[in-house]
Amino acid sequence: MSAPLRFAAIGLGQRTAAVLRAIKQTGTSFELVGYADPAPVGTAILAENGIAPGTPFADERALLAAGPFDLTLIGTPNHLHATQLALTLDGAGPVFVEKPIVRTENESYALATRLRERPAPALFVGLVMRSAPIVREILQVVREGHLGAIVSIDATEHLPPEHGAYLARNWRRKAEWGGSFLLDKVCHDFDILGTIAGARAQRVASFGGRGQFRLDRKVGGDVPAYRAWPGGWSAQDDVFSNDHDVTDTQTAIVEYANGVRLAFHASSHSALRERRWYVAGTEGTLIADLVRNKLMWRRALEAGAPVRHNYPVDEINHNGADVAMAQDLVDALAGRAKFPVTANDAIEAGLTVMAIDKAMLSGQVVDCAAMWQRLDTASGGLSD
Ligand SMILES: NC(=O)c1ccc[n+]([C@@H]2O[C@H](COP(=O)([O-])OP(=O)(O)OC[C@H]3O[C@@H](n4cnc5c(N)ncnc54)[C@H](O)[C@@H]3O)[C@@H](O)[C@H]2O)c1
User: Fold this and answer.
1) Is residue 128 lining ligand 1, measured as CB closer than 6 Å?
2) Is 186 helix (H, G, I), strand (E, B) or coil?
3) Is any ligand 1 atom within 6 A of the Cβ of residue 158?
């Protein structure tokens, strides 16, 4: 029997704990040697799952000095990723960083430059939907050409009040910590949708604001749904306090470089949850319901019922994606398989969403050409 893998965590919050829980569910033997986190909110999840948190270290430098580790996981609020990643990439041992890989455009270019200039340990990014069984099938259907050439897409992400209130209460409510509503919540979707489109975003436009969680729209009294999810780091209690500056409602349109057009709509106080992708191709159409975990597609000119696949629903584990990603991570660490998403994919997904937010803030259509040119200069055109 091989020795347990030795892990370290920078930011032992709810997500790091959930990733460790998922790794345990793969049957992989590991030890969390230690962590750097001034107030680790994920320890309750670890305790529930029989995972010992290991030794607390004063900060990430002290933790990394006790390495090398088989994996260092970075699961801090998004504004901390860039500096913690830079430090960890200069050390030894593979790194797993949560999405969004970084929070700003300049951080994206700096990371791409760093990865080009000097060798770095293996870097895995928690774009967990890439590992979701339903997403794998969607990408396969597209890749195998069942839909023909992709023409247009519409996509949605409508969160229930519990989730919207969580975003309005915790660190994600501030752009300086989270980046934006879309960057934190749907960089996953823009990663996959860009892959389905088969090109980079060329022009984007967006409209958004706070449609729900603001003082003049306060509903009810002490509503339990608004406190249903644990707040996490730097959380506040009142979702209607106006102490937040990111949107809770946003629309976007994207034209990709190959002419594929996409419309996107997100909201955060929905009575009817939805995360849905509608993909229209020259020869077929696909609808994916990512909440109910159902997929159907059909060729336009063929008689007969659509192909339908229903996957198990498991809300706690992102409908099975968490354990699937954990298995992908373990396989990549063991050299058995390639991880399904690269750092460059994650940087591109983040930049796409940042361009959308720039369009919303400026009220202008944003042409992405200069952004991609800067990225290509920074990365030297590398795709991994
Ligand atoms: N892939 C996914 O589906 C998914 C889901 C949820 C969260 N996330 C990502 O995971 C990351 C963490 O989110 P979360 O929901 O766990 O947040 P959280 O608030 O639950 O945890 C954040 C943790 O970071 C710690 N922290 C704060 N400052 C720190 C510092 N300077 N050094 C070390 N630790 C510090 C906090 O004390 C807290 O324990 C974010 O990047 C988020 O976007 C990804």
Assistant:
1) yes
2) helix
3) no
Q: Is the CB of 340 under 6 A from ligand 1?
A: no
Averaged confidence pLDDT in the chain: 96
Going by alpha carbons, the residue nearest to atom 23 of ligand 1 is: 13
The verdict on the CB of residue 178 being under 6 Å from ligand 1 is: no
Average pLDDT on 340-367 reads: 98
The phi and psi torsions of 129 (rounded to 5 degrees) equal -65, -25
The model's pTM is: 0.97
Burial class (CB in 10 A: 0-12, 13-18, 19+), 137: middle
Whether the CB-CB separation of 201 and 256 falls below 8 Å is answered with: yes
- Ligand 1: does its nearest atom lie under 6 Å from the Cβ of 14? yes
Ligand 1 centroid to 287 CA: how many Å? 32
Ligand 1 midpoint to CA 192 (Å): 23
Residues 62, 91: Cα–Cα separation, whole Å: 12
Any ligand 1 atom below 6 A from CB of 76: yes
Task: Give residue 218's Cα distance to chain centre.
Answer: 29
DSSP for 324-382 reads: HHHHHHHHHHTTSS--SS-HHHHHHHHHHHHHHHHHHHHTSPEE-HHHHHHHHHHHTT-
Provide mean pLDDT across the span 130-140. Answer: 98
> Quick one: which atom of ligand 1 is closest to the CA of 15?
16
Which residues face 284 on adjacent strands? 299
Please answer whether residues 277 and 290 qualify as being in contact, where contact means their C-beta atoms are separated by less than 8 angstroms.
yes
Ordered domains of the chain (ranges, CATH): 5-128 (3.40.50.720), 130-320+341-379 (3.30.360.10)
pLDDT tens across 221-273, in order? 778 999 999 999 999 988 988 888 999 999 999 999 999 999 999 999 999 99
Name the residue of 16, 57, 183, 233 whose CB sits within 8 Å of the most ligand 1 atoms, as the mutation to test its pocket: 233
Could you give the CA distance from residue 197 to residue 220 in angstroms, rounded to a whole number? 42
DSSP symbols for 136-154? HHHHHHHHTTTT-SEEEEE
